[in-house]
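Students often ask why we bother encoding 3D structure as a string. The short answer is that it lets us treat folding as translation between two languages. Here is a chain of 255 residues written in the first language.
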Amino acid sequence: MPHLTSAEPGTTSTGFSTAFGIPGYAHPLVAPAEWAELTRPGTPLHWVVLNVAGGPGSRPDPHCLEAAGRLSNAGVRVLGHLDTAYGARPVGDLLTDARLYVDWYRVDGFLLDRCPTERTALPEVRRAVTALRALRDDAHIVLGHGSHPHAGYAENADQLVTFSGPWTEYRWSQVAEWTADYPPDRFCHFVHGVPRGHLDEALRIARWQGAATIYFTDRTDRTDRTDRTDRTDPWETMPGYWDEIVSRIGTGVSE
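And here it is in the second language, the structure alphabet:
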């Protein structure tokens, strides 16, 4: 089993509330049930990512406007999806997309997806985050690294996604020592391919590793062998055990 490398298991598992961060369901026209479910009273949500068309799209989308509006009215934080392309996209392009998200969908912050992890990219990411906060000073910023980045990134965002990948890797994963210096509400874990029978184990791993924001699904990341562009996004649909995991998180997870 995975453990914290600098503390005993469980030392970071108290004093915080585990809830979902939704990486981004499919377009509301394609996945209306998923978006509707997010406004059900009692659903433990930290935030939901809105990804209209690889970004904000070219014009306001009425279906996305409605979905974002319902979430906002329910008191749920909505984040605009910004693809950093591992640092290859200019900050100006990110800001253009960010302004559209704010103007059209009144988002509460941003998920910077495919965020770089190396120390050399830190100044450019810091510059982007500073500009985003100037655009909206109360913006909630999540850096979507998908793995543990250089520790300096933790000082430049509200949260970091320090794991995004399959259950086969997550169940044996190790957490970076420097994360013990921060509270669990600074970290997010996205895990796909989690079998129903391993939900309790997955939730314990998140708590032991100090991640308060999670998203677990039994959907898998598959690519058609005959067409490498035909990829199944595991985050686009709701897990088959949604009601069960909502119930478990809502009532707390025993250690």
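Translate back mentally: The mean pLDDT is 90. Keep this in mind for the problem set.
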